[in-house]
């Protein structure tokens, strides 16, 4: 038998559950009445033999004493109605003695079986499991499900914060997008949740993730790129991967014109990997306009079935009643003081909110969180809410400019400079460097506690701490974009205060793509910008960790490529000299340390298009780079890297020394690296990509790849056979959910009336 305490349900949720259970038990249809001051009636069944009246008392938090006190005043109302049968349902646990006491209060016959307490409801739920399944908030927010989810998350030390999502479930209102996304995960294993800012994409994704985690899946949060997902993927293990704002993390979105090398392919390869695994699921979110820009930019995405995996969540997916429930749940389960709640109820102000054209769940969360509105008195609360709905972006901007300290500004700008997400130790270093520079520049005082105090100040309002520290919502980054656009010296502050090359690259790309005023300012300060780029050119790219090294910043090849662009745009003679010298040094270094071939190919293209003058003619520089990259390939590379290199080489450039080097690289790949790469293939797309790469290498170098090509063909056939066998296994059972529609002014009024009684 289940053991729910029903505390996760609002009074409205509890009434609907009670109605469904009684209808299932007694095989009657119950007519609904007001949710508020009901004169003794919540539901009624009328027939020729008389009337059945049902009253619900959701006192799980307040307990038996208040229940008995309130029933004393209710007994007279019920007696006046003279029902033939009265049913009382409560979330309070009742003993036989308690039931007898309740019977004695009423002047009408009241059967013990019609007094339903907590244990009786759990018993009915065990008999009527279909009712339990329909009320997803009941079982999803239960202690048993929480314990399972916590266990499965702890197994993989997941960054997925189970308890935080658990606490959010009671406020969640399922829209039509939930079953759509769930069906996608059931049938195709992948769901891309897209939509406008604030519509509830991340919340929907996390509800799905929580459900799957409770069903035995290991949750894996992907924080930066799909390589993390590939490293943690295990064929045959039940896993669900979650990547929030996945396009924003791999594509520069509104701020750029293209993906960097092969990132679009990485997206498609990982999706194909998950689709080909019977036990894996993938949930991703993105803003719709960024997704459309990415597809327009990338030929690979354009010709893929990415749109087919997309579940668009829009405000119109929420009916008027669902909007009302979103507001109701947030207020009911909030810490808003009574005088603020009264403002929402006065003159039915809640109607203005739920019918507003800019209504979205993010704004509702904001206006119902006391921490965020406590500086606004109850007298100004209605005007504050109206202003919030009229101009949602101002919720962050107003707080940024008027409510947080200079240290908090520095922390947010530091986080912005790395894309809004990074580990706490690194962020502290970024903060200290930038904060010190800004304090000196703008004359504000600092203290050793600034980092700690800024972190505490922003926690829960602008940032979300954890294994990584990240902005609490993508719109925080949108707000910081506007801060930089409006106050352009911030861009130079971040460039001069940077300790990683990634930071200056991000600010530069933002200025180039979407901020002409920022670019003009940087050009006016070109000498200072040039100094910062030169200083960071040789900042560490790797960090030693247990078991090896990990990349923490851009490759030297990427840095030199950008340096060429910056030198050209700024017309900086000093930076041009540094760029040319860096290219020369890089070519020399490749003799000792193999190049990153993909980034080297990108650098070669940048040199070709650059107006920067080199010490030697460009054809000679090009020849030296190609030879160095071929030498690096000989030391070991992937088929993708080899293929990218070959596509760059023109037939007339292949002299005997280069051809000999490429042949040696091909033989080395065939003998030492092919089997490893073949063993890593985990989807049909990856097998096909490998096959194309091998054919290209064989055709260019004349090295025999007949054996490897045959091995790929056999392995792919076996893989397809295994997948078909998996597909024949029994499909997962999916719970159907039903949502009560409350789409009239009257039913919305009835719903909010219960807030007056809570």
UniProtKB/TrEMBL annotation:
One of its GO terms (molecular function) is DNA binding. Residues 172-333 form the Novel STAND NTPase domain. SUPFAM superfamilies: P-loop containing nucleoside triphosphate hydrolases. One of its GO terms (biological process) is DNA restriction-modification system. InterPro entries: nSTAND3, P-loop_NTPase, Restrct_endonuc_IV_Mrr. Gene3D superfamilies: P-loop containing nucleotide triphosphate hydrolases (3.40.50.300). Pfam families: Mrr_cat, nSTAND3. Residues 7-116 form the Restriction endonuclease type IV Mrr domain. This is Restriction endonuclease type IV Mrr domain-containing protein.
């Amino acid at each position: 038998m289940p053991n729910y305490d029903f505390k996760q349900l609002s009074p409205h949720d509890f009434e609907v559950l009670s109605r469904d259970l009684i209808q299932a038990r007694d095989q009657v249809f119950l007519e609904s009445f007001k949710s508020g001051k009901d004169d003794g009636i919540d539901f009624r069944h009328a027939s020729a033999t008389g009337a059945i009246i049902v009253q619900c008392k959701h006192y799980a938090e307040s307990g038996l004493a208040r229940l008995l006190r309130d029933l004393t005043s209710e007994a007279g109302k019920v007696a006046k109605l003279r029902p033939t049968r009265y049913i009382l349902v409560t979330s309070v646990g009742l003993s036989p003695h308690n039931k007898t006491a309740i019977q004695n209060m009423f002047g009408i016959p009241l059967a013990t079986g019609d007094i339903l307490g907590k244990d009786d409801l759990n018993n009915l739920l065990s008999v009527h499991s279909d009712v339990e399944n329909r009320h997803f908030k009941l079982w999803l927010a239960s202690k048993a499900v929480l314990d399972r989810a916590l266990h499965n998350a702890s197994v993989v030390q997941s960054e997925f914060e189970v308890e935080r999502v658990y606490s959010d479930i009671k406020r969640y209102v399922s829209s039509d997008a939930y079953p759509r996304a769930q069906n996608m995960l059931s049938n195709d294993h992948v769901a891309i949740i897209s939509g406008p800012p604030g519509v509830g994409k991340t919340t929907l994704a996390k509800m799905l993730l929580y459900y799957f985690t409770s069903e035995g899946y290991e949750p894996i949060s992907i924080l930066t790129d799909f390589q993390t997902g590939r490293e943690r993927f295990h064929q045959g293990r039940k896993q669900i991967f979650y990547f929030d704002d996945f396009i924003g993390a791999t594509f520069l979105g509104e701020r750029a014109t293209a993906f960097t090398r092969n990132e679009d392919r990485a997206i498609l390869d990982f999706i194909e990997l998950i689709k080909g695994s019977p036990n894996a699921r993938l949930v991703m979110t993105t803003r719709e306009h960024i997704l459309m820009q990415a597809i327009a930019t990338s030929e690979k995405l354009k010709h893929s079935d990415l749109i087919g995996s997309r579940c668009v969540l829009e405000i119109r997916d929420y009916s008027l009643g669902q909007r009302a429930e979103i507001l109701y749940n947030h207020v009911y389960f909030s810490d808003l003081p009574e005088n603020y709640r009264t403002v929402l109820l006065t003159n039915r102000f809640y109607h203005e909110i739920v019918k507003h054209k800019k209504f979205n769940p993010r704004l509702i969360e904001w206006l119902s969180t006391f921490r965020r509105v406590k500086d606004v008195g109850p007298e100004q609360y209605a005007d504050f809410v109206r202003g919030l709905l009229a101009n949602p972006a101002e919720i962050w901007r107003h707080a940024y400019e008027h409510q947080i300290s200079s240290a908090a500004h520095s922390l947010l700008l530091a986080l912005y400079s790395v894309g809004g997400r990074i580990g706490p130790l690194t962020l502290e270093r970024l903060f200290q460097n930038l904060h010190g520079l800004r304090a000196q520049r703008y004359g504000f005082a600092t203290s050793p506690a600034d980092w700690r105090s800024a972190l505490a100040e922003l926690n829960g309002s602008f940032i979300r701490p954890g294994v990584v520290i990240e902005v609490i919502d993508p719109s925080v980054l949108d707000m910081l974009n506007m801060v930089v656009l409006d106050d352009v010296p911030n861009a130079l502050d971040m460039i001069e205060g940077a300790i990683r090359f990634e930071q200056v690259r991000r600010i530069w790309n933002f200025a180039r793509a979407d901020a002409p005023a920022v670019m003009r300012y940087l050009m006016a300060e070109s000498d200072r910008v040039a100094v910062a780029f030169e200083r960071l050119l040789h900042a560490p790219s790797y960090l030693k960790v247990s078991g090896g090294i990990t990349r923490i910043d851009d490759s030297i090849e990427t840095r030199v490529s950008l340096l060429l662009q910056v030198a050209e745009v700024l017309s900086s003679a000093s930076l041009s000299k540094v760029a040319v010298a860096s290219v020369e040094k890089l070519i020399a270094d490749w003799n000792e340390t193999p190049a990153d071939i993909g980034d080297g190919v990108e650098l070669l293209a940048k040199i070709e298009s650059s107006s920067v003058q080199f010490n030697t003619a460009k054809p000679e520089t090009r020849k030296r780079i190609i030879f160095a990259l071929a030498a690096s390939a000989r030391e070991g590379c992937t088929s993708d890297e080899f293929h990218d290199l070959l596509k760059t080489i023109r037939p007339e450039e292949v002299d005997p020394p280069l051809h000999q080097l490429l042949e040696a690289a091909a033989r080395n790949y065939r003998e030492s690296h092919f089997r490893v790469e073949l063993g890593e293939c985990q989807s049909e797309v990856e097998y096909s990509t490998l096959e194309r790469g091998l054919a290209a290498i064989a055709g260019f170098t004349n090295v025999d790849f007949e054996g490897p090509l045959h091995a790929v063909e056999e392995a792919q056939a076996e893989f397809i056979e295994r997948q078909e066998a998996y597909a024949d296994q029994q499909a997962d059972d999916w719970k159907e959910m039903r949502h009560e529609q409350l789409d009239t002014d009257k039913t919305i009024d009835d719903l909010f009336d219960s807030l007056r009684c809570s």
